[in-house]
Design a protein that fits this description.
This protein is α+β, with helices and mostly antiparallel strands. The chain has 5 domains: about 130 residues, PH-domain like; about 70 residues; about 80 residues, Recoverin, domain 1 (Orthogonal Bundle), CATH 1.10.238; about 325 residues, Alpha-Beta Barrel (TIM Barrel), CATH 3.20.20.190; about 60 residues, C2 domain (Immunoglobulin-like, Sandwich), CATH 2.60.40.150. The protein contains 25 helices and 26 strands. The strands form 8 sheets. A 7-stranded antiparallel sheet has the order 4-3-2-1-7-6-5. The protein has a 5-stranded mixed sheet with strand order 15-14-13-16-17. A 4-stranded parallel sheet has the order 18-19-20-21. It starts with 14 loop residues before the first helix and ends with a strand. About 5% of the residues have low confidence.
């Protein structure tokens, strides 16, 4: 950067976490207890690590820790073992347990229960560790800091005698170098280098590791650049007159404002020399050596992303409709849409990942307790309890972000169970639930939606709402106890009482007329279908199929074979969400009121900003093709939600960029699938503090601007830029000795999105430090 910038990625680590405490660790996989572990956190906040007497040191990388739980008892199946562990400390085992939840995706989570001696210690560690996670900025540390992280991990993963095994070091570099070469480099540095040798941690300093790294992975790419700047001579330093033009012509973006980002000059280059040059004689001569040049290029000053934009930097006082909102589809599913497993944990993981709009498909529970459930109805998915989901949402909604959360209900419940839903939201969420509109922003036509800043730590419900006069009358009758809650006794079904029938999300196969009233609240008629086949069929094969459906549901969490899935899909018929809304639930809906979309002209005439509509991706694509400017203008005023088409039974995702281009706020994706679409979503929302809200560009918010994303010159007054990307080299790309290559794609407006494949050559058998040195990949017109 032209001006000095200090990247504050670290979260201060409390002293008591650095000093450590004694915990017992329960290993759920082996069902064994590792007693008296000394658990610590390093001063940088990279790792939670522990070691017990006679065992190897182990680590959990904090950047991979999704959550810290308190009060989650370890899964100990043997009552005797449970009792023995419980009596070892003061207080219940449940509240003495701090559980570390970690994983590389949102589905495959590893749980590490740490059992403290007393409740006070567990509470203190829970609060301390919660401060450190999640830290998304730590995913953007520079190469030099990454090297320190690699070194520290080696120092912490000691053997039972507390020393670093040489084998650990050879494994770290095995993806690009032979074991023999690695051990020889250790010997050259005066360190033990035998296969069975071990190194004292005090002898393996970072400077020693850094020197070792350059022996193993010489930065020939940087050496070539250094020689080029030196005019091909063998001189061992660069001077200020050589460095100034390099920084200005090749490091600085020429489009930057000269006042905010001034050109490099002698004073600025001297700052760089004083910061990165380790040879004091060179510093006195105002020279930069190859080592100093390498340290500079590997620092935060050369980050590929805007580090200052990883904090909240956007204006958060615009109406909600002016933001992209990180959104999830069928949040409860951890796998496929058909025969998939529903999980309360998915709500926790999705919210902790920064999502701000989650979906709850609500159905009547059929057990004796009549508890509402969440599942993908009629699709052979397993069930979870609505109240447990609301509890999970309360606990995790505002850990990662303080910005508002929207609960998108797809409501199939009877009135009696809708009332239970409303009471759970009210009782569990408490003051977090926005039950009434803000006094300063009433629900009136022409009134802008409230901004995220005014809704911090508030949860909004998105559900159909009754007309105000119907809601008021029904609520008064209900509160007086005069309204019959039993749907079976209702004679009149008043569809006209609903503000507007919303397009209920389609099921995996077909759409249903959303104006048809729905009184079907049974989530699993497919089970009855199986029983019917079983009872009536004389065919033994059909009976086996029916039995297998029930067994899969009970034993395997809803997973189906391909044949079973086809059989169920052939009988599948989706029923739209109910229009028979309980007034108590209706009264909790305010700034996110779904209505049936009747056209852009109708929406513009009504000018009701708190009305919103949902479109499946196919419908959305249709509007992009035929009325894209109208869709952009609609999204300036009101919110829209896009969700995957029903045919995506494998929970795959569409590319969200095409809908972001039209200003659609809630582009809902299947978070359980880490495909390209989710990677784009994750990368986009990592900016602005990972708060889940991104302010749309000015021309997509202002009513006096016209924007057509498909136009050759879509943005008035903006000159397209020329962008070239040169892939030089990579470091620590894989822990396996495999061939690697890099693909470069650009996703943006249609004029930006080049269909040509940009791909480097393959560097064989090197996942450690491949050098590509490709010619630049050029994008000639980027808006």
């Amino acid at each position: 950067m032209a001006k000095q910038f200090e990247f504050q990625w670290q979260i201060p680590v409390p002293e008591y976490l650095q000093n450590g405490a004694i915990f017992d660790r329960w290993d759920e996989e082996s069902g064994t207890l590792e007693p008296k572990c000394l658990v610590k956190v390093d001063e940088n906040g990279f790792f939670i690590y522990w070691k017990s007497e006679g065992r190897e040191g182990q680590v959990r990388e904090i950047s991979q820790v999704n959550d810290i739980r308190l009060g989650l008892a370890p899964k100990i199946n043997d009552p005797k073992t449970y009792a023995e562990i419980e009596v070892k400390g003061n207080g219940s085992l449940e509240w003495r347990t701090v559980t570390i939840c970690s994983g590389l995706d949102l589905v495959n989570i590893t749980y590490t229960p740490l059992i403290a001696a007393d409740v006070d210690t567990s509470r203190e560690w829970f609060e301390g560790l919660r401060q450190l996670t999640p830290n998304t900025k730590a995913n953007n540390i520079c190469p030099m800091t990454s090297l320190k992280k690699h070194w520290l991990k080696l120092c912490l993963m000691v053997n039972p005698s507390g020393k670093i095994p040489v084998r650990s070091i050879t494994r770290t570099f095995a993806s690009g170098r032979t074991e023999k070469m690695i051990m020889q480099c250790l010997k050259d540095l005066g360190l033990p280098g035998g296969k069975c040798d071990e190194i004292e941690p005090a002898d393996f300093t970072f400077e020693k590791f850094y020197e070792f790294y350059h022996k193993i992975c010489p930065r020939t790419d940087i050496e070539d650049l250094f020689k080029e700047l030196n005019g091909g001579t063998n001189r061992t330093y660069l001077t200020i007159p050589q460095l100034v033009p390099f920084f200005n012509d090749r490091q600085r973006d020429p489009r930057l404002n000269e006042i905010l980002f001034p050109y490099y000059n002698r004073k600025r280059v001297l700052q760089i020399i004083n910061t990165y040059e380790k040879d004091l004689d060179y510093v006195k001569q105002e020279w930069l050596s190859l080592d100093g040049f390498c340290r500079y290029l590997m620092s935060d000053e050369n980050a590929p992303v805007f580090l200052d934009r990883l904090d909240i930097y956007m204006d958060m006082d615009q109406p909600l409709s002016h933001y992209y909102i990180n959104s999830s589809h069928n949040t409860y599913l951890s796998g496929r849409q058909f025969g998939g497993r529903s999980s309360v944990e998915m709500y926790r993981q999705t919210l902790l990942a920064g999502c701000r709009c989650v979906e709850l498909d609500c159905w009547d529970g059929t057990r004796e307790d009549q508890e509402p459930i969440i599942t993908h109805g009629k699709a052979m998915c397993t069930d979870i309890l609505f109240k447990e989901v609301i509890q999970a949402i309360k606990e995790t909604a505002f850990v990662t972000s303080q910005m508002p959360v929207i609960l998108s209900f797809e409501n199939h419940c009877s009135k009696a169970q809708q009332y239970k839903m409303a009471k759970y939201c009210e009782d569990i969420l408490g003051d977090l639930l926005l039950k009434r509109p803000l006094e300063s922003i009433p629900l009136e036509p022409g009134q802008y939606l409230p901004p995220p800043n005014q809704l911090q730590q508030r949860i909004l419900i998105k559900n159909k709402r009754l007309k105000p006069e119907v809601e008021k009358r029904s609520l008064e009758l209900f509160m007086k106890g005069q309204q019959e809650q039993n749907d079976d006794l209702e004679i009149v079904f008043d569809v006209s009482g609903v503000v507007g029938n919303v397009d209920g999300e389609e099921g995996p196969l077909n759409d249903l007329d959303p104006t048809t009233p729905n009184i079907d609240t049974d989530a699993h008629p497919e089970l009855k279908l199986c029983q019917s086949i079983d009872n009536n069929s004389q065919d033994e094969d059909e009976k086996k199929t029916s039995d297998s459906f029930e067994k899969k549901e009970e034993d395997e969490g809803g997973n189906l074979t391909a044949e079973e899935e086809i059989a169920l899909m052939s009988n599948y018929k989706y029923i739209g969400a109910t229009t028979n809304i309980h007034p108590y639930l209706s009264a909790m809906v305010n700034y996110a009121q779904p209505v049936k979309f009747q056209g852009f002209d109708v929406a513009e005439d009504r000018n009701v900003h708190y009305h919103m509509s949902s479109f499946n991706e196919n419908t959305g694509l249709g509007y992009l093709k035929t009325q894209v400017i109208e869709l952009v203008n609609y999204n300036k005023r009101q919110m829209s939600r896009i969700y995957p088409r029903g045919g995506r039974v494998d929970s795959s995702n569409y590319l969200p960029q095409i809908f972001w281009n039209a200003g659609c706020q809630m582009v809902a994706l299947n978070f359980q699938t880490p495909d390209l679409a989710m990677q784009l979503n994750q990368g986009k929302f990592e900016y602005n503090g990972n708060c889940g809200y991104l302010l749309k560009p000015d021309f997509m918010r202002r009513p006096d601007r016209t924007f057509d994303p498909f136009s050759e010159s879509p943005v008035d007054g903006i000159i397209p830029a020329h962008c070239s990307v040169q892939v030089i080299s990579g470091q620590f790309l894989s822990d396996k000795k495999i061939g690697t290559y890099v693909e470069v794609d650009m996703y943006g407006l249609p004029t930006d999105t080049i269909r040509k494949e940009f791909r480097t050559k393959v560097v064989p058998a090197n996942g450690l430090n491949p050098v590509y040195n490709e010619d630049p990949f050029v994008f000639r017109k980027v808006c």
